[in-house]
Write a structure and sequence with these properties.
Blueprint (H helix, E strand, L loop, with lengths): L3 H32 L6 H7 L9 E12 L2 E2 L3 H15 L4 E11 L5 E2 L2 H9 L7 E6 L1 E2 L10 E5 L7 E6 L6 H9 L29 H16 L8
Parallel strand pairs: 1-3, 1-5, 4-6, 5-8
Antiparallel strand pairs: 1-2, 7-8
Bound molecules: zinc ion.
């Protein structure tokens, strides 16, 4: 009897600990969106974004500019993180990674970029060399024909050494990697494996596509040139 008694006492207390544990779990679950990966403020996007891994040879800064409309950025922290993670996976073979250095708001008036002149004006004022500047807008029109596009590597027509990337909020997670491919000197290609190949195809499946070996070789050379000219400056 004496032995059994403490067990009963424990058994009797257990539900109370159980209730406390459930309450704690509920608090943690509901507390998470305020401070976790679902914090879609500008600070939240910056905090959630992946950092360059220590083992990578070159780490380059991305300065992100994103349209804020009705008080909210036009895309989420999760979307931005997906873009950067995907880019880093595709650039890893050449020892390159990217991380966000800053996130800044763009006026809601810039939500839809239609004309070439708007693409010029979007990045002209804030342009600086040494980093990759990425502008995220809600809609990005095709300037050559009817319709929208997901992204573009744009050179200011007034001074072509000034260049930046523009991503549409509608773009999928390889768009940043593709546009960075242009930043690293690559044109659209015919390699079936390549994310620079825009031709619709079923093979290889999207998940298996990356840069072709020939493109990686070319990008290594372009990287060396950009480092020499300080168009890209290593963060470390
Ligand atoms: Zn392209």
């Amino acid at each position: 009897m004496n032995r059994a008694e403490p067990q009963r006492v424990r058994a009797g207390r257990f539900p109370r600990y159980g209730v406390a544990a459930v309450l704690l779990a509920v608090l943690l679950l509901f507390g998470q969106p305020l401070h976790g990966a679902d914090d879609d403020t500008l600070e939240g996007i910056l905090e959630a974004s992946p950092k360059c891994v220590d083992t990578i040879e070159h780490c380059f800064a991305i300065e992100l500019f994103i349209v804020v409309k009705d008080g909210e950025p036009v895309q989420t922290a999760e979307w931005v993180t997906g873009q950067v993670e995907t880019a880093n996976a595709h650039f890893e073979p050449i020892g390159v990674a990217f991380e966000l250095a800053s996130v800044q708001a763009l006026d809601a008036g810039l939500a839809t970029i239609t004309e070439r002149s708007e693409r010029d004006m979007l990045g002209r004022g804030a342009f600086r060399t040494g980093v990759v500047q990425v502008y995220v807008v809600e809609h990005l029109a095709n300037v050559d024909e009817e319709g929208e596009i997901y992204g573009v590597h744009w050179r200011d027509r007034e001074k072509r050494s000034r260049r930046w990337l523009i991503l549409s909020s509608l773009s999928w997670n390889t768009t940043l990697a593709h546009e960075l491919g242009h930043f690293f000197g690559q044109k659209h290609s015919d390699y079936p494996i390549s994310i620079m190949n825009k031709t619709a195809r079923s093979e290889p499946p999207v998940a298996q596509r990356t840069f072709a070996d020939e493109e990686l070789t070319s990008m290594r050379k372009v990287l060396a040139k950009m480092l020499k000219k300080k168009q890209l400056v290593d963060r470390r």
